[in-house]
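Exercise: predict the fold of this chain.
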Amino acid sequence: MASYVLVYLIEGKAKRYHQALSKEISKKFNVKNPSDRIVPHITIKFIGNLNNKNQVKELIRKINETSFNLRKFEFTLEGFNNFDRRVLFIDVKKIDALQNAYQEVYSRIIKLPFIKKVPKFEGKNMHFHATLCIDDIEKKFDKIKNYLSNRNPVYEVYFNNLALMKKENNERWKPIKIWRIK
């Protein structure tokens, strides 16, 4: 059975910065590098396991419908933040355009009967971010956070894509479809 996630793919200088910093943190603090498993991204909706190809086709159809309504816009990746002591990430500056695009996509795909809601992290509670390190950082959290304290990344990026990623077994996440937003 495969797992799926819908993401925005970070591109350009912001992607290169994210990859380099994730790798640097991983080597310096001996923690896992999320870029080894998936390209730099901002999660729109973790889908989870889908039982059959018809569910995947239906999900793709919904995203196709939604993507036609979206328009490209600029937003900012800026600074660092965290979720508890488990996740350190590059933060996303809140803007209405991003929240509206997210809501447009989320509200359509969440209607599919096989898509699970996670209200604690989704909908109005969504906090957009680009994960730098996760899970195995709790004991090293303060050192990593201190290491990042003298940096302040600021990257202007365009919301110009959506990608449905798939992972089977313990393989790397791979895009199965990318939608370009104009």
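Check your answer against the key: The mean pLDDT is 96.
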